Amino acid sequence: MQISSRFTIATHIMIVIALEAKDNRVTSDFLAGSVGVNPVIIRKTLSQLKKAGLISVARGTGGAAIEKELEDISLLDIYRAVGSLGKTGKLFSFHENPNPNCPIGRNVHAVLDDKLLQIQNAMERELAQSSLADVVAEAQMQIQEEGVGQNSFLKRNSSLSHPRDAY
């Protein structure tokens, strides 16, 4: 089983908004083109980020904007905003019915619960230490290393019907 992609989608959205909002309206269609998912998923994620106070969203085609300084938003803030841990608040979930008649099934929680909680806490500490500013700076570096200005594709292809077509 794989951990939900909500966090990476939300982080991708935040990076796009940080880099593009000054020059373009960052709409759900624009974001869907960059992230490569249905605009409905984007709108749900935007709603979660807005509810957490990380962004504002103008109705219609007004677009989204980040509400805090990039340095003041941690990856943990984004992670929590989109409910990446689900209803339990735990990174790891157990299968529901370990066999109590089996010595391993009977003891699996005692063996793993504390270890898995330590792993989750370590991951959350790492996320808390990384800011959106760090990630945006890294994205800008990657874009520069490719030799492509962040908006140069859009500028060279201004005949595109929608900015999302550039992604």
Automatic annotation (TrEMBL):
Transmembrane segments: none annotated. GO terms for molecular function: DNA-binding transcription factor activity. One of its GO terms (cellular component) is cytosol. Pfam families: Rrf2. It comes from the Bacteria. InterPro entries: Tscrpt_reg_Rrf2, WH-like_DNA-bd_sf, WH_DNA-bd_sf. SUPFAM superfamilies: Winged helix' DNA-binding domain. PROSITE patterns: HTH_RRF2_2. This is Putative transcriptional regulator. It comes from Streptococcus massiliensis. The lineage of its organism: Bacteria, Bacillati, Bacillota, Bacilli, Lactobacillales. The gene is ywnA.
